[in-house]
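Q: Got a minute? One more chain.
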Amino acid sequence: MRTLSRRSFLRASALSGAGLVIAFYVPRKGIAAAAAPQKAPPAPNAFIRITPDESVTILLAHSEMGQGIWTGLAMLVAEELACDWSRIRVEHAPAAPAYAHTAFGMQMTGGSTTTWSEFDRYRTVGAMARDMLVSAAAQRWKIDPKRLRAENGYVYKGREKLSYGELAEAAQKLSPPAAVKLKEPRDWRLIGKPMRRLDSREKITGKAEFGIDVKLPDLRTALVARPPVFGGKVRSFDAAKAKRMPGVEQVVEVPTGVAVVARDFWSAKTARDAVSIEWDLGPGAKIDSGALEASYRELARTPGKVAVEKGDADAALSAAGKQLEAEYFVPYLAHATMEPLNCSVRIDGDRCEIWTGTQFQTNDQASAAKIAGVPPGNVSIHTTFLGGGFGRRATPTSDFVSEAVHVAKAAGVPVKVVWTREDDIRGGYYRPMFLHRIEAGVDAKGQPVAWKHTIVGQSILTGTPFEAVMVKDGIDETSIEGVKDSPYLEAVPASRVMLHSPRNEVPVLWWRSVGNTHTAFAMEGMIDELAHAAGRDPLEYRAALLREKPRHLRALQIAAEKAGWGSLPPAGRARGLAVHESFGSIIAEVAEVSVDRSRIRVHKVTCAVDCGQAVNPLAIEAQVQGSVAFGLGPVLHSAVTLKEGRVQESNFHDYEVLRLHEMPHVDVHVVPSQARMGGIG
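A: Always. Here it is, folded:
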């Protein structure tokens, strides 16, 4: 599994007569239709290579970071190509405008967009390749292509057959068809079937290359000493002691701090610790988590920017038979990917090469070009496997990539900048701290008649390229997603949702499922409070509010049924449930929990997920199981806290994630659905 540049890929294939290489443009459904008419054909954005040895190589415009698209996107191509699945190979595509696939014109992986955004594109790619191979066979046999069929890597004429490898070079000389017919769902042989992952063997055996595995001739390792508080700057530094240490070659200043360049990691790490730095801390040194939380609670009692207004919430609340209020608080959270951040850079004349696991190729390429002083087209990004992303490897500032380019430029040698776990936990770009204050009024039957909801938390989009589209009238859509569009609010006659977006020096970022990480917690927590106050079963109470939302209701009922809701749980345990829509998918869960001397233990989680058409049910199951593990870390343990601007946590001993012995049994039920495909990240 290796990455080729687009230019090298085409040149090597064409000159070597390697077989069929398809490079063409497949429009994005919906986006392309809305675009202005184009005077010239756009650049190719999809590639398949079929060689005489029968291998089929698919280039992905996206990044594989454990979510399973290495297999899922290949399934889409293979379904229409009708190839031998055992012959499929996958590679990360290079960074190039041709691979942009979002409305923002970016090549990226995030927002739970990959599978649904590529569902038509990648199937069309496979169908075009199949038709070209069939046409090549028809020319050889001098027969109408309609009398032939493609199956499992062969084109058949009755009992006669020609393999794709035999036809590849002839097919390469043909023009791609202007239009293709895609299979009907009833004819699918791969889509919707559980498929084992293509990258498992390489990862299990250690052959798969992650960014931290990259080795290059003369590659040096660098570690950066960064300010102890966010927004701080280097005032002065003394590197004399560090420069005398074994293995150390250079100490250079970069915009983010002081970098030590050495022959190996440990030499760089110990020398970095020996650099004496005087910092200009700035206003970030005043940040304290406790004080910040207190200020949020005060702010939540004041009017904010109105995001939702239906009826007269104040009057309805005053007239309600009973009033309830609650506050839901969540701390800053680090992404804590298993592979810490790293980036290797080599600058050679007017060219810059980068090796890293990134979710944001377009942004990183532009940032690197600006720093290196070269055209974006002269920046090659070799995307490796990512040892976890969750949004951290997709920063609008391209922070860890930009920093590595700065170090390589200052040092004048190829460098791999490595972050320690402590650097990673204390490096910022956190899920923001949020506070929700909810006041609800219910009638005599316990039904909600009024809902006032105030949300306080930093905007993750302000100051980014996404602000112009997703921040309107000062309201960051990601701060209110999951509340603004909640099906529960649709059932409440009067509601008001307000938002405060205070600012400080702590850098914040999207974090797996973004705003839903806190809005689902607040909404479902309050609904449970209302059910409890009404003396009603939590399932029955939700079902009454969701009677006009059949997908939500179905997922909730399936999860409840599979979990044995209504029967007695094992002694000492209780069950709770919730349902939420995130990125177009609906998931319901039932948790079986016990409490022993204030210690919460989750024993079992039963999940039902409706994500529209399921491409690979096994990948969905793995994603949901992983999401339960990822989510339980913050629920039970994880929090980033600051005192005098300094992050107090440093490693997994104090920024705790879920441990193996705490992992519950997780049952996942994929709900058959014809709804529009959503995301599962």
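A: The CA atoms of residues 482 and 520 lie 6 Å apart.
Q: Perfect, thanks.
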